[in-house]
Design a protein that fits this description.
25% helix; S-adenosyl-L-methionine; globular; binds iron/sulfur cluster; rSAM_sf; alpha/beta; Radical SAM protein
């Protein structure tokens, strides 16, 4: 049998909820505030709880050099109970083995599979239960300035996934001076045009990328961002680290490295 190569370079796991997190290398966007400028492994690992505060001018992490074969990935995951698997960063949708991995995981574990994606390209979603699409921006010029690409496919793909009847959530990052209140409200209005009940999560930007001029979002700004989005959508939440320094006890559950 031919060994199937994946783009998975890191696997994290939350024992309390039997959930695995698969980290894929490679992306089809160039977001200026990409977290991978700072850290490429799971932020919830104990050694990465300082990421938000870490100096963005530190050298970028090295690109991974080792990737798992599908058989190796399955062997790692068989060692623990698996109820849920999240496909995430960089961009799992462009991993040529996406369809093979999701099928193998469904066959082996019958687990719930979620894809975090920028939505530029849709993979075969047959064995994917839920899609979380990061919309970045809906205004074409703003999107291009931030990602160096067009958002035409993304907006169309968001509609397509909804029409397929898949469970769908929207996400964006609130960046003061870049993806601001005005753009956040436009994202919410776009999502509401499709269905006002689609959940929308707004993540607070923190400094990532040595050349970026933007400061981190304040708690008041995040409250405002949620308020403007709620003019259009029923279910809006935000995430922001408010503790100056995170410790293991601050996490909802422990996350460990499997690979
Ligand atoms: S889509 Fe995600 S991984 Fe890709 S560049 Fe943007 S933030 Fe980074």
């Amino acid at each position: 049998m031919v060994a199937i190569k994946t783009k998975v370079y890191h696997v994290a796991y939350a024992p309390a909820i039997s959930k695995a997190y698969l980290f894929h290398w490679g992306c089809n966007l160039k977001c200026q505030g990409c977290l991978c400028n700072k850290e490429i492994n799971c932020m919830a690992l104990e050694e990465n709880l300082d990421v938000v505060l870490r100096d963005p001018k530190l050298p970028k992490p090295k690109s991974p050099e080792q990737f798992l074969l599908l058989d190796e990935l399955a062997t790692i995951l068989k060692k623990v109970p698996i109820k849920e698997v999240l496909f995430e960063g960089q961009e799992a949708s462009i991993d040529p083995s996406y369809s093979d991995i999701t099928k193998a995981l469904k066959d082996e574990f019958g687990c719930y599979i979620t894809l975090n994606t920028n939505g530029v390209k849709l993979p075969d979603l047959t064995n994917t239960d839920e899609i979380v699409m990061s919309l970045k921006a809906v205004t074409p010029d703003v999107y291009r300035a931030y990602t160096e690409h067009s958002n035409r496919n993304v907006l169309g793909n968001f509609c397509k996934v909804y029409q397929q009847g898949k469970k769908l959530r929207a996400e964006s990052v609130f960046i003061p001076g870049m993806i601001d209140l005005d753009e956040t409200e436009k994202i919410a209005a776009f999502v509401a045009m499709i269905d006002p009940n689609i959940p929308y999560r707004i993540d607070a930007y923190f400094e990532s990328g040595a050349e970026n001029p933007w400061r981190r979002a304040t708690p008041d700004e995040m409250i405002e961002a949620v308020t403007v989005a709620k003019k259009h959508l029923v279910n809006v939440t935000c995430t922001q680290q408010t503790e100056s320094k995170l410790e293991k006890k601050d996490l909802m559950y422990e996350v460990i490295r499997l690979y």
